[in-house]
Specification:
By secondary structure, this protein is of the alpha/beta class. It contains 14 helices and 21 strands.
Length: about 450
């Protein structure tokens, strides 16, 4: 294959994916011709089109460009995809997204952030701190930064901040100088089979760190100490046995204020203006990585103060004396547990209504007990039908699989128009927190729910 710098025309299959779109934006920024396919039109694909990247929504080999030099695809694309098979059968150069990302970052100083939960927020925090402080980086993110309304940006400084995706073991194509591991819970069991295999993949990722690099991991994760000259720093929200931890954590005017202590020295009165105690721990990981890059508190503290979060991560849409509305990407029991407990902490006297869209039939099957147990901690639950994404239905598995295991809370399965009708029934001034959660197309509800609740 020709070197990436010599390739001028690329086609992306699955271009609307959050990681794929960042890569498409990178090549567009480099002045390449970029186009692609996705199954459905979304806000993200519309944004790509506005940026000059044509997107097709029809799987039709007759209309695809035939003069492309490289086809990039996501492993979530099914094997019977007609365009993918046309390019494969006709000898075009094909690469997975992760392979291309590995080539792009092969010669840079890389901060690669992995974890079944937290990686998007931590990587966005690191990239934001570098950008806000004037250091700069090339950022390949798995979410839309609220500060910059994008998941990619570029800078002449040869530092890359990369969200390291564990799906399909993609992160094993990366070359970290600093690797962050935030969590290693069982997930993607359709790929890995067992939770133990998930852990083994994260350990293999930690072994990809370059000589002289650093592993930053959440304290307590079962990752062996790195070999050779690779350093390790652990972090934890409350456990003072970690190398880096918080003290004096308090809520001031709705925001978190805390001190950072440990082996890297003390930072005082760090303020974080996004919700959820888990985001304080995410900030701790980001701070630890940035200090390894040589940044001091005089740059980190004001940058974090300016951090506005990531779209669909504890994302406030309505705040005030009446109903509060938060949208979140949570699609795993652990993420849902952190979301619900954080909302309880911030709004202890309000009723909590959770609208949850299960993502993937396999994940619904594998974690139905966990979802039911966590959702029982809300006051009212609405389940949307399972969002299938890349999967075909599994016999006997549906949102009712979760519903039938719930014991304590008022719960039902509704479709999207019925969710909007429920929102309209909320009384003006009612002390309620409405949460929408899921990784599918539940975000289609965000705008209409926001409009409804702002009248309350």
């Amino acid at each position: 294959m020709a070197e990436l710098k010599h390739i001028q025309n690329l086609y992306f299959i699955g271009i609307g994916g959050i990681g794929m779109s960042a890569l498409a934006r990178y090549f567009r920024f480099q002045g390449k011709r970029v186009s692609g396919y996705d199954k459905t039109e979304t806000a993200l694909t519309k944004a790509l089109v506005e940026e000059g990247i044509p997107v097709s929504y029809t799987d039709d080999p007759a209309v695809i460009p035939k003069d492309v030099q490289l086809v990039i695809y996501t492993p979530a694309i099914p094997n019977d995809h007609r365009e993918l098979n046309y390019y494969r059968d006709h000898g075009y150069e094909l690469m997975k997204r992760s392979e291309v990302l590995g080539l792009i970052t092969a010669g840079s100083l890389n901060v690669c952030v992995a974890g079944t939960h937290g990686k998007t927020t931590i990587s966005t925090m690191i990239a934001h701190i570098l950008r806000d402080s004037g250091i700069g980086s090339n950022a390949f993110l798995g979410g839309i930064s609220a500060n910059y309304n994008t998941n990619f940006w570029s800078h002449p400084n040869n530092i890359c901040v990369v969200e390291a995706d564990e799906y399909d073991r993609s992160f094993l194509n990366l070359h970290p100088d600093i690797a962050v591991i935030s969590s290693m819970d069982a997930d993607h069991l359709d790929i890995y089979g067992t939770g133990e295999a998930v852990k083994e993949a994260f350990i293999a990722f930690s072994e990809k760190i370059k000589s002289g690099g650093t592993l930053v991991k959440k304290h307590g994760l079962p990752v062996p100490p790195p070999a050779g000259d690779i350093r390790q720093l652990s972090y934890h929200l409350t456990d003072h046995n970690a190398d880096v931890y918080t003290k004096n954590l308090r809520i001031r005017s709705g925001h978190y204020v805390f001190d950072v202590e440990g082996k890297q020295g003390k930072l005082q009165d760090v303020q974080l203006n996004v919700g959820g105690w888990h985001n304080v721990e995410n900030a701790l990981a980001a701070i630890t990585a940035c200090r390894k890059l040589g940044l001091g508190g005089e740059k980190i503290i004001p940058a974090l103060h300016n951090f506005r979060g990531v779209r669909r991560r504890f994302d406030y849409h309505v705040q005030g004396t009446g109903p509060v509305y938060i949208d979140d990407y949570a699609h795993h029991p652990r993420e849902l547990e952190v979301l619900i407990s954080s909302v309880r902490e911030l709004f202890p006297d309000r009723k909590m209504l959770v609208v949850f869209q299960p993502h993937l039939f396999s994940r619904t099957r594998d974690f139905a007990d966990g979802f039911a147990k966590i959702l029982d901690k809300a006051d009212e639950v609405i389940l949307l039908p399972v969002y299938p994404a890349r999967e075909l239905p599994i016999s006997g598995i549906s949102s009712a699989t979760i519903l039938n295991k719930m014991e304590k809370v008022q719960a039902k399965i509704l479709d999207k128009p019925e969710v909007l009708a429920r929102a309209r029934s909320i009384q003006p001034g009612e002390k309620m927190v409405l949460i929408t959660a899921g990784a599918g197309d539940i975000d289609d509800l965000v705008q209409p729910l926001t409009e409804i609740l702002k009248t309350k």
